[in-house]
Amino acid sequence: MNNSSYWSTTNSPLYSFIFTIPLFVIYEIGVFTISVNDIVILRNGADVLMRQVLGLFGIYGVYGFSASFMIGFMVAFLRQKKALKSTAIHGEYLIWMFLESIFWGFALYILMASTTPLLIANTTGTMLQQVVLSIGAGIYEEFVFRVILIAGFGSILGFIFQWKKIAKTASGIIFAAALFSLFHFMGDYGEDPNFPVFMMRFIAGVFLGIIYVFRGFGPAAYAHTVYDLIVLTLVTTQL
């Protein structure tokens, strides 16, 4: 494998789109197997934000949310497709992306290790609910708080202060990470305010933001999911 080709080729919307499809399908199957009464438990920061926004347009429910995400992702991919040098997919690159994402997930766990007991204390719901929530968080939280908000905050602040690309990206990462952490404490199923947890989630948001900027949406989504599943594993082994 050509290392330089791998890093440049896989940091593209095409590879993120293909790479994320299995994760999205697994999540949809998981949601389908959960009863209607249990679905309401699947709430996270991205849910609170996106469900309220989509509700303004008359789009409600888990499936409306999922369909809106998939349509939005496909539109973003098609808009950027013309800028791609090639649409060929290297299967071995996808395997390496998966292994790379596992590495980033464990790196995030090491970074967050000091607050893992606090995060475990805030974990509720059945095993299936938590697995589905972990996968959903990887997809939707990264899509909202990295793909949308990093670009959004960066563009707005860059326009106001006439910043260059590096400053716009850095500010986008920081503001998106702060909102990412804050939204875990909002909504009917939000956690009780806790400043140490807020700061550690903020740091995690910055970490995932850097992964997104340099490696794309796919690795960031998988890394987030891997981290959540590691924490979930710790929960089950301590019960």
Automatic annotation (TrEMBL):
Which InterPro entries does the annotation name?
Rce1/LyrA-like_dom
The protein's matches in Pfam families, at most eight in alphabetical order, are given as: Rce1-like
A single GO molecular function term of this UniProt record: endopeptidase activity
Q: What is this protein called?
A: CAAX prenyl protease 2/Lysostaphin resistance protein A-like domain-containing protein
> What residue stretches are annotated with the CAAX prenyl protease 2/Lysostaphin resistance protein A-like domain?
126-230
Enumerate the transmembrane spans. Answer: 14-41, 53-78, 93-111, 118-137, 143-163, 170-189, 195-214
Q: Which UniProt keywords apply?
A: Membrane, Transmembrane, Transmembrane helix
Q: Please, one GO biological process term?
A: CAAX-box protein maturation
The major lineage groups are:
unclassified sequences, metagenomes, ecological metagenomes
